[in-house]
Design goal:
Blueprint lengths: L1 E5 L5 E7 L5 H11 L4 E19 L4 E7 L3 E13 L2 E11 L5 E21 L6 E4 L4 E4 L1 H8 L20 H11 L12
Antiparallel strand pairs: 1-2, 2-7, 3-4, 3-5, 3-7, 5-6, 6-7, 8-9
């Protein structure tokens, strides 16, 4: 896998391009560990030569494997990285397209990349922790533990951008309204062509 960090709006972003034969979950987990990620989200597209999906069986409290030993397109891959027992863990869901146009999806248990998998990973400044949930039998993101660790008092808004409070009154408000009502030239956003 090849990775490149990209600069932007202050968030840590990575472009990850996997190689043929990489096992997606294992390589992504290794990347998260080697970069000390404690909270991140990702999306991706690409293809697998084979994939194992999981369907969570509530009664069994376990994933039932769905194995596809065929070339499939990764139509949508999304997930997160959070800490479980102090280690970064990957939780991913995927929808794959088959040769006949049908789709299959579920929890991504494993996937052999062929020919590529391209992910955009965004690191969060907060730390997310997973805790064991006895009702489901799963390790789930625990916002209370995450907020306590990060020292954030934002009441569950772990990684939401904060909008500064702005007071517009009197002449300022009138100027904003008039600017919005004014006709725009074709070069301005929202202007006539």
């Amino acid at each position: 896998m090849h990775a490149r960090q990209i600069q932007g709006d202050g968030a840590e972003r990575w472009i990850l391009v996997f190689d043929v034969g990489d096992e997606a979950v294992a390589v992504l987990t290794d990347f998260a560990r080697s970069h000390g990620l404690s909270a991140a989200s990702f999306t991706g597209i690409g293809a697998f030569g084979s994939v194992e999906l999981g369907y969570f069986d509530w009664e069994a409290k376990d994933y039932l494997p769905i194995r596809l030993d065929e070339q499939v397109e990764v139509l949508a891959l999304t997930g997160d990285v959070a800490l479980a027992d102090g280690e970064p863990t990957v939780h991913a869901h995927v929808v794959v397209g088959r040769h006949d146009g049908s789709a299959a999806g579920g929890h991504l248990l494993s996937g052999q990349v062929r020919p590529t998998l391209e992910l955009v990973l965004v690191e969060s400044p907060a730390e997310l922790r997973k805790s064991y949930d006895p009702e489901s039998g799963l390790a789930l993101i625990d916002l209370d533990a995450s907020l306590a660790e990060s020292g954030s008092g934002r009441g569950g808004e772990v990684d939401l951008p904060q909008t500064p409070e702005v007071s517009i009154a009197g002449e300022q408000a009138r100027a904003v309204v008039e600017a919005e009502d004014a006709p725009r030239s074709s070069g301005e956003e929202g202007g006539a062509p």
